[in-house]
Amino acid sequence: SPPPPPSTTRCTSRRQRQMCIRDSFKSYFGQEPIDKGWVPKRRMAHRGLADVLVHDERGRIWHGFQVGAGDGLREHVLSTAQQLRRHLATQEPIVMAFDRGGFSFEALNALSDGGFGYVAWVPATVSLPALATIAPADDGIGEQRWHHDKLESNNRARLLVQRDGEALLPMVTNLPEEVSAAEAMTMLRKVRGWQENDIKAARAFAHIDRLVDRGGAVRAPRRPSCAKSRAQGAARAATSGPPAYRRARGHAAAVCR
After folding, report:
1. Is the model's pTM score more than 0.85?
2. Phi and psi at residue 93, to the nearest 5°
3. In 28-100, where do the E strands start and end?
4. Which secondary-structure segment (H or E) carries 172?
């Protein structure tokens, strides 16, 4: 029988594999038919392709694969973690870090059941206790055990809240208490910082946010029908040029090549 998955109780700040998972959407502005996905920065749906990328705490890409344009990152968190475990072939605990797009209670419970650690930002749409009562009075990080109806009892999640002036930033982790709140927050910010730096560096010399083509065979553009060509030619001929020129122009536009 296969060995049991590593336990998150073995996670410490010095003994673990920290991996960050993120999604990347590239908009497509061509004429070919292609699925639509959500573009967070533009807050609208657009045609394009979506990828899921995984990198380590130094920003090195370990894995990448294409997903449906409309897929949410939360749909791929667990399967990606399982693929990493098979690829790394290690018994060291793997800690998955992700932003708000990867958050869901189902994903957190599944990661916990699978023996994975996680650190993640919590979106504002989630029902939370009063954050001001968790965060310290001055700038710093406070924490408490997170009890939520959608969190399973074996998922020992901790809710961490960082106070930065007037801002209160919540994150969640299932790492044991040996990993302090400050260490967990630093871990998440570190891997996310490498990710953002990679994106900025790539944008300096590559069009990573838009597609040159749709990624497959590019079909030849469709020619307009004869009837459409005749109608367009007649409309142009009726509105410009002397009578002889208009007749010649209309005749030329009606020819299907």
Report:
1. no
2. -60, 140
3. 36-39, 44-56, 61-67, 94-98
4. strand 167-173
Residue with tokens 């959407």: 25
Tokens matching residue 184: 């967990």
Tokens representing 161 are 């809240």
- The pair of structure tokens assigned to 56 is 């380590």
Rounded CA separation 199/229 (Å): 45
Six-digit token pair at 89?
A: 């072939």
Per-residue pLDDT for the chain (257 aa), expressed as one digit of tens each? Answer: 444 455 544 444 456 788 888 887 777 777 777 777 777 666 777 788 788 888 887 777 788 888 877 788 899 999 999 988 888 877 788 999 998 889 999 999 999 999 999 999 999 999 999 999 999 999 999 999 999 999 999 999 999 999 999 999 999 999 999 999 999 999 888 876 655 555 555 555 555 555 544 454 333 344 455 555 666 666 665 555 555 544 444 444 444 44
Q: Which residues contact 21 (CB under 8 A, 6 or more apart)?
A: 52, 53, 54, 73, 76, 77, 80, 81, 96, 97, 98, 102
Backbone angles phi, psi at 101, to 5 degrees: -65, -20
- The pair of three-digit structure tokens given for residue 24, joined into one six-digit string: 């990347």
